[in-house]
Structure formats: structure tokens, C-alpha cells
Amino acid sequence: MFLLNNKLFEFNIKVCTDGKRSLQDAILSFFSWHLHLTMLLDWFHVVKKFKEDLSLACKGREIRNRHLKQLLTLLWFGLTDKAIAYLKTIPATDIKNTDPINRLIGYIERNRKSLPCYAMRAQLNLPNSSNPVERANNLVTAKRQKHHGMSWSDDGSHALTALNALTANKTAQQWLQKRSFELSWPAKAAKTVKQPSPNVS
């Protein structure tokens, strides 16, 4: 409704996700009618994925970090073919388990169209992360409903999320009095967002 109300469907839509196939499939299915929808893999999750699988694949932290730095640099600049080639040429003496390496190759091949040149997007001040959405989700849903030993029905969870969203957007009073609220997108001055780098911590 927000996209429709603000006439945003006429523009290109880029969705930032964590690479989970079921989520990607659901988004692509929902927007199957839209001709200009593209996916972007969240950089934080790309780093997390490679850290985890290389930890399982490599013989020790030093070896993992050496290969991780090279691979993340290639991916930061959108060089997916070179990243695949690098994975295939990691010396056998550095590897204790080849299965995670094969998973990473499949991950890149499957998500090739969703792995842009993050460096260029950072230079253009375009987002490389889904952090704003995840922060909003934590504010309206996860903070109250998760990790408190409680169980929620679908109806109860949706109702509380809707109420928290109204409160966060300062429209709860308007909804209670008029049973309506604005689905507008207020113009705000653009802020410079510090982009993550490919460096290994």
C-alpha cells in the first residue's frame, strides 16, 4: 500500500535481502508482474556467509582470514567470476573440508545477478545493507515479541506489530480517532551513510 499510495511502482525497485532462497522466491513471486525488480545481497550477510563457510573449510584462522580478505575484496568490486576462480584455486594444503568451498561457489553462481559492485554503490551513496529495515523490524516486532519466553498467535503478532508501527510513526492517535492514517513519504534531506568496507576484522 505504501508503494502504491506514493506512486513508486513506476520506478525501478531494488530489494536488499540476506540471500535466503525462500525469501527471495517469495519476493520475486509477489512482484512477478513488475518489469524492473532487482535483488541486492546485503553486504553484511555476504561477509557473514563467507566467514562462516571459510571457517569450516580452512585449516586455521590465519589461513581463513587470508583467503577471506582476497575474496571479499573481489566481491566488493563485483568481480564474481574472479571470486569463483579464486575459490577453485585455493591450495589443497589450506583446506580441511571442500564442501563449504563448493557451497560458496554455488552461492555466488546462484546470486550472481544480486552481487553488484558494492564499491561503486558506496561511492554513489547508495545503500549496500538492509540495516534500516532490520532496525525497523526490531523496533516494531522483534524487540517485544522475541527472546522473552512468550508465544504469539499470528493474529496477535500482526496486531501488536501494527500498533507498534502506528506508535513509531506517531499516527496512533489519528488511527484511534479517525480510523485512518497517512501513507505518505515525507521529504527529508539526504544523509551521508558510512558504507561498510571489505576489510576483515
Would you write up a description of this structure?
There is one protein chain. This protein has helices spanning 2-5, 21-30, 43-57, 61-76, 80-88, 99-110, 118-123, 131-145, 154-168, 172-178; strands at residues 13-17, 37-41. With 201 residues, the protein is mostly helical. The chain folds into two domains: 42-129 and 171-201, no CATH class; 131-168, no CATH class. A two-stranded parallel ribbon has the order 1-2. Helix 3 (43-57) packs antiparallel against helix 4 (61-76), helix 3 packs antiparallel against helix 6 (99-110) and helix 8 (131-145) packs across helix 9. Mean pLDDT is 80; it is low at 188-193.
Structural domain count: 2
- Please state the structural category: mainly alpha
Tell me the helix content.
Answer: 40-55%
Outline: elongated
Rg calc: 21 Å
Mean pLDDT: 80
Number of strands: 2
Cα(first) to Cα(last) distance is 40 Å
The biggest beta sheet reads: 2 strands, parallel
Going across the major beta sheet, what is the strand order? 1-2
Q: Enumerate the spans where pLDDT stays under 50 for 5 or more consecutive residues.
A: 188-193
Write down the secondary-structure element order: HEHEHHHHHHHH
Please count the helical segments: 10
**Residue fraction in strands:** under 5%
